[in-house]
Amino acid sequence: FAQITAEESEDDPPSREEQVDARLCKRVPAGGKNNGAATEETAGDGQRDGEEAEQPDQMPVLSNKPRKKKKKRKTKKTSAAETLEDNELEDIDSLLEKIEDTNGLSQQTQSGIIGDNRPLLYVEHRNLNPENELKRYFGARAVLGDQRPRQRQRQNVRGTWLTTPKDTWPRYSKTGITMQLVDTRRGAQYFAFKHHREYQQVQFKFLDAVESMDPNNIVPLLEALEPYHVDSLLQLSDVCRMQENQEMARDLIEQALYSLECSFHPVFSLTSGTCRLDYRRPENRAFFLALFKHLTFLEKRGCPRTALEFCKLILSLDPENDPLCVLLLIDFLSLRAREYTFLTRMFQEWESHRNLSQLPNFAFSVPLAYFFLSQQEERSELELSQAREKAARLIQLALIMFPSVLMPLLDRCSVQPDARVASHSFFGLNAQISQPPALNQLTSLYVGRTHSLWKDPAVMAWLETNVHEVLATVDARDPLVEEAEHKRKTRYQSAPRNIYRHILLSEMKEAMAALPLEVTSQPVMGFDPLPPLDSIISYTRPERTNHPSNESTLSLFFQSLLPNFNLQGNIRHNREEEAGAGQDLNQGVNRLMAAMQDMLANIQFQEPPRDDNPEGDGDWD
Compositional bias (Basic and acidic residues) spans (predicted)? Predict the structure, then answer.
């Protein structure tokens, strides 16, 4: 009976009463002398519950006392282990409750104070789990319900940080992807994913399925050959998203991340910020794209803090080149997550060598972050005044440098400008027409993505005040205005390839409409949009062997008219069974004649229109 109860306690989550009993069992043996009293108390409780429940407990006692002692020790050990685990879980719950009691602004302040001693792109494991963020918003019970944390992931062998494996996923086995350490220099470690020969064969079949332009050809690869083929999961995720099956699309992305994380190198770290991946290698691109699409789903799900952590992770993999140009996104996620200190710190540390102020998103988002910091009452008066001064100075510089942002931003916020602003030529239509195409893409992307953050009435009042200050500066013919105009004309002539790649992945209608023809005219695949021109190819796809075709020009003509017509269909299918080329030729001729008869039978001639007035004068007006 004791063994049965021990097994049930391992399978079922303990109730409140069981937790209290476990704590009592742990405390009483510590005294040594109270063991007998504790036994009497438990026996008394058994008598209160009923004599029938007491008899099965006494039978093993009368038959074999040493065994009873062994069982009691085993039960005490298991109960002590369970109590220790419950105490750890309660500590975690208490920490989460403390976090829930504080508001978002105080969280942001504390994280900024603690994070100053850490690297800028330091990633925390707990911030990669969206459940932790949802617990802060809605509470642990609303997110997990009656499900205990130790009850989850029971059937999954391996735990991961990026995603939470689900029992509905296929059973994971070695997929043929590994990670190797390529180089170590300047304090950074450079890694690369590697495809084994079996995985390469699946990759070749996947490329054949993509060229067929039929997503149904990708499904057999996942079902029969490799259920965790990463590129197939990415491509099918886009198909599900286009069909508005968001849940399945998100699940496929999580499976891809799970497969890639299981193949990490033992030295590869997500949190150090010193592990690098080269996007020029095709094997590494799937990890970048899966992370980007995952953070997009997280942001739409209402988890901006978790999405910001994934954005920092992507940027840490290649901060110099930034292949997906997440710098155009990280400011928006910081404002959504109320991580204002992180955004201002990034601007201060990276402005000198990255010129972040030349990007419209940083030029406008950083002063907006300073404005939100100036509204925090828990800060000192000196800090509030400094934040107000920096916010006013930076927003005026942004309006002078990028005047074409104001009118579209006000239009998206459904705000009508006053007469002075509407009639002034500096913010007029000429500012939008005269800007280069590359700058138009950046401003359209920023307005379409962050306009919701500017709808606050306090933000609009602050913006209106600074707009009038800028107009006064323009009317005074400040040389700063002319210098900014010169910068706009000389710079932003053409956008780099990573900005185009970011716009395609973001799917902002305003920005995609401004893409050049050289980008929109070529096919874009979801598993590898706009691959780098200087790619590092580790293995090549073998050339496809084309069988000699006997199709003539006439047969190709019929094939263009009738998609089901295939002259070589039966010839290739029965090539091993048929003997002699004459029979193949006869069958091909017969198929061609049948196709001609079918086409002639379906042709309908339309009679020319009759003239109801044949005796007309024939004059044309």
Answer: 13-24
> Which pLDDT value is given to residue 206?
94
Predicted confidence (pLDDT) per residue in 108-143, tens digit: 434 433 445 788 999 999 999 999 999 888 888 777
Q: Are residues 393 and 479 in the same domain?
A: yes
Report the chain's terminal Cα–Cα distance, integer Å. Answer: 107
CB 287 within 8 A of CB 277: yes
Count structural domains, the chain: 2
pLDDT (tens digit, 9 = 90+) per residue, 57-108? 444 444 444 444 444 444 444 444 454 445 554 455 555 444 444 443 344 4
Mark whether 307 and 426 lie in a shared domain. Answer: no
Residue 397 belongs to some domain of the structure = yes
Whether the predicted pLDDT of 365 surpasses 90: yes
Query: Average of pLDDT values for 14-23?
Result: 49
Where b means 16+ CB within 10 Å and e means fewer, 431-450 reads: bbeebbebbbbbbbbbbbbb
* C-alpha distance from residue 593 to each of 58, 578, 588, 598 (Å): 94, 21, 9, 9
Rounded Cα distance, 238 and 223, in Å: 18
The domain of 384 spans 339-495
Q: Are the C-beta atoms of residues 172 and 259 closer than 8 Å to each other?
A: yes
pLDDT averaged over the chain?
A: 78
Which of the two residues, 263 and 87, has the higher pLDDT score? 263
Query: Rounded distance, CA 94 to CA 269, Å?
Result: 28
pLDDT top residue among 30 and 492: 492
Tell whether 236 is covered by a domain.
yes
Task: Give the pLDDT mean for 545-560.
Answer: 51
Query: Is the separation of the CB atoms in 90 and 140 below 8 Å?
Result: no
Instruction: List, in sequence order, every residue forming a beta bridge with 525; answer none if it has no partner.
Output: 528
Same domain, 264 and 402: no
Quick one: 299 and 420 in the same domain?
no
How many helices (H) and strands (E) are present in the chain, helices listed first? 30, 3
User: Are 452 and 395 contacting, i.e. CB atoms less than 8 angstroms apart?
Assistant: no
CB contact at 8 A, 506 and 449: yes
Q: Residue 513 class from Cβ within 10 Å (0-12 exposed, 13-18 middle, 19+ buried)?
A: exposed
Residue 293 shares a structural domain with residue 400: no
Rounded CA-CA distance 252/215 in Å is: 14
Question: Which has the closest alpha carbon to 531: 352, 286, 312?
Answer: 286
* Selection from 417, 409, 399, 416 nearest residue 454 by Cα: 409
Residues 231 and 351 in one domain: no
What is the Cα Rg of the chain in Å? 34
- In this structure, the answer to whether residues 361 and 255 fall within a common structural domain is no
Given a contact cutoff of 8 angstroms between Cβ atoms, the answer to whether 368 and 453 are in contact is yes
What's the pTM? 0.71
| Burial category of 315 from C-beta neighbours within 10 Å (exposed 0-12, middle 13-18, buried 19 and up) | buried
